[in-house]
Amino acid sequence: MNTSDTPGRAAVTPAVHREAVATETARLVAALDGADLSVPVPGCPGWTLRDLVVHTGRVQRLFSLLLSRRVQEPPRSREVELQLPADDSGWADWLTASAATAAGAFAGTDPDAPMWAWGADQHVRFWMRRMLFETLVHRTDAERAVGLRPVIDPALAADGVDEFLVNLPFAASFAPKTAHLRGSGETLRFRCTDRDADWLVRLRPDGFGLAPQAGEAAAGPADARVQAPAADLLLLLYGRLDRGAGAVETIGDEELLSHWFANSEF
Q: What is the DSSP track for 46-82?
């Protein structure tokens, strides 16, 4: 079964997303303690840990600005006041302040209010959910950069898989390779081995997207399958884990699998 009742609506609630943004930011801040901010970040080629912090805080502040304005059309500018710290000793406090800005934007904001979003769900809740997984994935990047082993809550991880697969068909403006995800009805099934959650993606001549999961389609065969614990599946989809990793199992059309992973970069 899919973790969503309808596209973009997951069993994990917006209230959980809001709280988890603060929690995940605090974990990222903890990873900075005593760290060399010039170290490279696995999963983000060309970035240092400092670059990662700047990006994460900027995203939180930008999304907070969009939320506070409840924009109804694509913004003309994505510039936002960053108030960067004067030196490296201030980055932890700066990132904590970014999360506080997000919390302020969340407060009193109805997650069901209509709002422009680049993804499937045109409501405030889209940005709450998107901010969480931007923060969570980059928290794991920071931990890996300083030699820590990331741990992800399985329920959040499964929700993140859903968020990724629901929104990927709308991401062509910044993920141009997704334009190559075309086909003639080929299907890929993604399954969490530690959660009751799976997704069926179908490639069509005009694009791709999640297929309805009802009746026989819910348990029927797929041309290729990818299954792993929810945390590993999330990191795999985001390119932070290789599909040859021990926790990941792939079955079926190898050419289709290669095509998917070569063109689904987010």
A: T-BHHHHHHHHHHHHHHHHHHHHHT-SS--S------
Q: What tokens appear for 79 in the block?
A: 């510039």
pLDDT at 254 over 60: yes
- CATH code of 4-151, in short, is 1.20.120.450
pTM (2 decimals)? 0.93
CB neighbours of residue 153 within 10 Å: 17
Mean of pLDDT values over 153-174: 97
Q: What percent of the chain has pLDDT over 70?
A: 94
Instruction: Answer for the pair 221, 230: CB distance below 8 angstroms, yes or no.
Output: no
The domain locations on the chain are 4-151, 159-263
Instruction: Please tell me the CATH code under which domain 159-263 is placed.
Output: 3.30.1050.10
Q: Give pLDDT, residue 185.
A: 96
- 8 A C-beta contact, residue 13 and residue 27: no
